Amino acid sequence: MLRLNQVVKQFAQPDGDVTVLNGANFHLPVGRSAALLGESGSGKSTLLHLIAGLDTPDSGDLTIDGRSSLTLHTNDWNRLRRDRLSLIFQQYHLVPTLTVLDNLQLQARLSHRLDTAFRDHLIDRLGLDGLTRRLPHQLSGGQQQRVAIARALLHRPALVLADEPTGNLDEDTSERVMGVLVDLVRETGSSLLMVTHSAHMAGFLDEQWRLQHGQLRRLSGA
Amino acid sequence: MAPATWPVTSAVRRVKAGFARLLRVLLTLLSHYRRHPLQTMFLLTGLVTGVALWSAVQVINAHARASYAEADQVLGAQASHWVRARQGQGISVDDYVQLRRQGWRSVYPILEQRLTTAEQGVISLIATDLLVLPADAATGDSGLAEGGWLQLATPPFEVWLPETLAQQLGVESGERLQLSSGRELPPARLFSREQQGLRAFMDIGAALTVLDQSRLSYLVVAELTVEDEARLNADLAELNPDLALVANQQRLDLNELTQSLHTQLSAMSLLSFAVGLFIVFNAVRFALTSRRHTLTTLRELGVSQRLLLAAIALETLVMSLVGTAGGLALGYGLSLLLLPSVAATLQNLYGAVLDHNLLLQPQTLIQAWLLTLAGLLLALAWPLWRLARQSIQSQRDEPADWQQDARARRRLLGFSMILAVLAVLLYFRLNSIVMGFTVLALILFAGAGLLPWSVALVLQGIQRVLPASAWRLNWACGDGLAQLGTLRTALMALLLALTANFGVDSLVDSFRTSLSDWLQQRLAADLFVQSDTLDIDALLAEPGDWLVESHRRNGLTVRWQDRPTQIRGLNTETSDTRALPLAAESDRASDWFDGAPDVIFANEQARYLAGIELGDRVQLPVEGQTVSFEVVGFYHDYGNPTYQFYLPHERVEALWSTAGEQGLGLWLSDDADALARAEAALTRAGARPGDWTRRDDVLAISLRVFDRTFAMTAAINALTFTVAGIALLASLLAIHQQRLPSYAHWRSMGVSGPEWLLIVGLPLGIGLLVTWLLSIPLGTLLAGLLIYDLNVLSFGWTMPLIWRFEPALTLFWLTLAVAGFTFAISALQVRLRLPQALKHLGEDAA
Ligand SMILES: Nc1ncnc2c1ncn2[C@@H]1O[C@H](COP(=O)(O)OP(=O)(O)OP(=O)(O)O)[C@@H](O)[C@H]1O
Ligand SMILES: [Mg+2]
Questions:
Q1: At A204, which CATH number?
Q2: Tell me: the pLDDT tens digits for B528-568?
Q3: Residues of B with CB under 8 A from a CB of A
Q4: ipTM value of the model?
Q5: Nearest ligand 1 atom to alpha carbon A46
Q6: In this structure, which residue's CA is closest to atom 26 in ligand 1?
């Protein structure tokens, strides 16, 4: 599903260039989930940006859904993100003017993959019944993140990229939200790469990786 | 150390620390502008453009007022009396010298002459003695202060030509103009005095020498007391019984006369200032919202609300000072550009001549600056007040913003209803121009207040009828509603500009149509002759078969209601008089045509400005006494600043011995050579080339004058529209800048370029469409008010409102072009910045 090959990424900073990724290698098979751990500033978000095509590596290449980043142009990336990927962030990024229902259907509609039965199933599983006609600001943080998760899964993406999705939530809530996310990802058969600070959360996933000194290292797993 | 000083030093230290904190906060706030140069640019652009037009008009008005004041003293057009020779033969220099010897210091000599140049051009020359002019009049003139009169008065002398006249004649500075008589004028200097008009100016001694004349045309007498008048009369009778003291009937109070035009100019520039204030208001709001995080952080760090407000107020003051200074500089440049148009308007409407050299007084600048600052503070008060009322918590809370907006829209609607009611109430008490413009302003702002609500109504309406499957359209409408709060100021500014444009276009259109119809009717004859040398009796005694009909008019100017008033004698039998269309008439109107001695027609100016009605009796001065006439009809008399009365030709002749020829209209036969024969006959009877004009030429000239008169109106309107366009661009750029993180997120979910265009562009298009639609009824209302009320109050003219859709259509295309252009620019900005925004996706919105 996802393969990184000798990826290098540098940033120019006032105090000199910073090499965030220094020949990182990584592999994530179809349908598997991996947790990405690492210190603050180690480059986890940068890595996710590269994988989503939001930024480009300085050297090396990555293969995603069978296609090499070297052959993907802006429009290909746009289409790939719309149809095959989804992104979940700490800030839920809901469209404030759309209802919960419209928000969670958004990406599925954009990619013409709206499956109403699956939608109702997601609403049910995420406990969003009765909230669908509300506007995002009328929801709690945990509810908003569940809407964002539903949106990210409804079009059955091949790969879900999540950057500290529960960072804004309290421990209990975040554990519950995480649980549903992992279950649903398994259900849809998507792959999942999730950045987290919590080793406990990481334990929910199939694999655990650590980003350190620009390199990725697998910690454990079957 | 004395214990008493201790608290003082501590207070000083506290104040110092306070200032240091204020400065630190200010610098933190200002760092925003350093990082967002575009926003800074637009804040300043708004300020500069808004202030520029406003101050330009202020400068022009002040200049005009100064010009009139000066003109009152100089050259005699505004003299209180003249000394003239009864037989029109002029005044000998000896008589003049004798008068001055007798102590009449306020009498000065004028020589006026029409000269034909070697190339058959006609110029009029005016000469006076600068040395005897009242001192205050002389020093007001820069040419004299420089000692220019020495060149004027000593050989080889000089003739001063206004630049436009010199251009017409093709004379360069220093050249001598050849006359048809074989003489030549002294070297030319391109310089014009106040009230010189399109006339050449010379020193009187020089003129007498160069033109070989020995008599003066007349003497001008400055202010006279009643006793002085009697004394001067006695002295004149003794000196030379041929000389008469004549009161200047033409004397106009230019200040009063042109007041309405200056009020109109001020009103129009105020409108553009208002549009500029909208921009500022917008920019400040954007600056505050996009710095919400900074502000909140500062609050959380313990900076007090009061200190924060002080810092923001200080910041705005700094901005205002910079912006208004730029605006004033631009305004000054603009006033130089506008001045010729304004001068043309004034000359055409009132015969008032403005100098093209701008008189700029420092207090004008300061006044404009203070007014600007006052307006700015007004624009600032609202966002600051809102900020002050917000708690720290809600400053982080973004989504609540656009929800609150619905309440703001309703409040605006209520506000506009109140304004509308006020406008209606005031309308029924309308009796002055200032009040009229107040009503206009109320209507404009009521319309502006109505706009956001209307746009929201349309967007919500569309949303309601959309099927669920049209989710993109639905999203677009919802997004549009949410953005209305940030976009509405720009839309309101645009509405003001569109309304003003459409209203004034309709006014000018109606006026032009009425004027040209009226001219067609009034200029019925084929040839118009106005000549000092033509012997009309000889011409008409034996006309050839080229002449079908002739209309000889006589007339004079008297003083009535303390204004110069024209009396014209018409031939009641000619076809043009028979067809004279009357704006209003009583049943005795036909008596006028039958030559009844006690009835009179008056122009509309006398009706509306002097307040006479049909059936009223007017008392006109007739050589020492008055004669009473009943007003039985009113006629249109566009472009005339003075009152005028029509009487039958014979009646004028019988009553006033001083009445002179006022032009001759000739109807020619259809023969191909009729014109040539008419011209030959005119020449034989003493007329000179240039004394007659063909009908079509008069028409063309009149319409050209009209267009020139309204060129300035068009210029101001165009500028207001430009300011509104800038407002729109500034808003769109700011909105897109602010929403870039959202757009990046949309893009990451797969929203394509066309979809983005639809979501962001469609509501904008709908907003613009509603704005344009609303501007049509509002503009019509404006035009109606201008035509039926303000025009009558200002000029005393009436005309029908001629409503045409074309101007609105033109404005539609113009709006589309401006909006398309601004949207394209802002979309390009998004396109260029989106990749960068994508890289920062997921980070806390900065
Ligand atoms: N656009 C950028 N320009 C310059 N430097 C950047 C940029 N984005 C990230 N960096 C730098 O790259 C490094 C890695 O940042 P990144 O956001 O990937 O860290 P992270 O592992 O996600 O940290 P955290 O756990 O705090 O979110 C940091 O030193 C950061 O300063
Ligand atoms: Mg991160």
A1: 3.40.50.300
A2: 887 777 888 888 887 778 888 889 888 888 888 877 788 99
A3: 398-400, 402-403, 471, 474-475, 478-479, 481-482, 742, 745-752, 755, 838-839, 841-845
A4: 0.89
A5: 18
A6: A40
Q: What is the Cα–Cα distance from B520 to B524, expressed in whole angstroms?
A: 7
Say whether pLDDT at B256 is over 80. Answer: no
What's the domain range around B644?
Answer: 547-668
How far apart CA B785 and CA B184 sit, in angstroms, is 55
Q: What is the DSSP letter of B788?
A: I
The residue written with tokens 């079009």 in the block is A155
In a domain, B496, yes or no: yes
Residue B542 lies in a domain: no
Please report where in the chains the tokens 């004149």 appear, as a residue.
Answer: B236
Residue A50 C-alpha to ligand 1 middle, in angstroms? 12
pLDDT above 70 (res B198): no
What does residue B82 show for φ and ψ, rounded to 5 degrees? -125, 155
Q: Over 90: is that where the pLDDT of B765 sits?
A: yes
Q: Which of B216, B247, B278 is the last residue of a domain?
A: B247
Ligand 1, atom 17, lies closest to the CA of A45
Quick: pLDDT tens for B723-736. 788 878 878 887 88
Residues B392 and B405 in one domain: no
- Say what the pLDDT of residue B319 is: 76
Q: With an 8 Å Cβ cutoff, is A83 touching chain B?
A: yes
Q: Which residue has the tokens 């909006």?
A: B819
Query: Ligand 2 mean position to B36 CA, how many Å?
Result: 25
B363 and B467 in a common domain: no
Give the residue from B215, B247, B279 where a domain finishes. B247
In a domain, B263, yes or no: no
Could you identify the residue written with the tokens 């407000």?
A: B309
What pLDDT score was predicted for residue B132?
A: 66
Do A81 and B398 make contact, defined as CB atoms within 8 angstroms? no
* Inter-chain CB proximity B749 and A110 less than 8 Å: yes
What letter represents residue B243's amino acid? Answer: L
State pLDDT tens for residues B387-406: 666 655 554 444 456 667 78
How much distance in Å is there from the Cα of B844 to the middle of ligand 1? 12
Same domain, B239 and B294: no
One domain, residues B59 and B124: no
Pocket lined around ligand 1, Cβ cut-off 6 Å = A 11, 13, 18, 20, 38, 40-46; B 839
Determine the 3-state secondary structure of A102 from DSSP: helix
Q: How confident is the model at residue A147 (pLDDT cuts 50, 70, 90)?
A: very high
- Residue B26 CA to ligand 1 center (angstroms) comes to 30
**Mean pLDDT value of segment A30-48:** 93
Share of chain A above pLDDT 70, in %: 99
Cα(A13) to ligand 1 centroid in Å equals: 11
Whether residue B482 sits in one domain with residue B362:
no
Q: Looking at beta carbons, which residues of chain B come within 8 Å of A102?
A: 471, 474-475
Query: Cβ atoms within 10 A of the Cβ of B405, count?
Result: 19
Cβ of residue A92 closer than 8 Å to a chain B Cβ:
no
Domain count, chain A: 1
Q: Which domain holds residue A177?
A: 2-221
Question: Which residues are paired to B91 by β-bridges?
Answer: B216
Q: Does the beta-carbon distance from A54 to B474 stay under 8 Å?
A: no
Nearest of B714, B709, B692 to residue B638 by alpha carbon:
B709
Pocket test for ligand 1, best of B836, B838, B839, B841 (most atoms within 8 A of CB): B839
Q: Is residue B212 part of a domain?
A: yes
Distance from CA of A53 to the nearest CA of B (A): 9
d(CA B432, CA B810): 33
Q: Inter-chain contact A54–B748, Cβ cutoff 8 Å?
A: yes
Q: Is residue A81 less than 8 Å (CB to CB) from chain B?
A: yes
Domain total of chain B: 4
Closest Cα of chain A to B739: distance in Å? Answer: 12
**What is the three-class DSSP state of B304?**
coil
Residue B586 binned pLDDT confidence (cut-offs 50, 70, 90) = very high
Among the listed residues B614, B644, B786, the one whose alpha carbon sits nearest the alpha carbon of residue B717: B786
Residue B177 in 3-state DSSP? strand
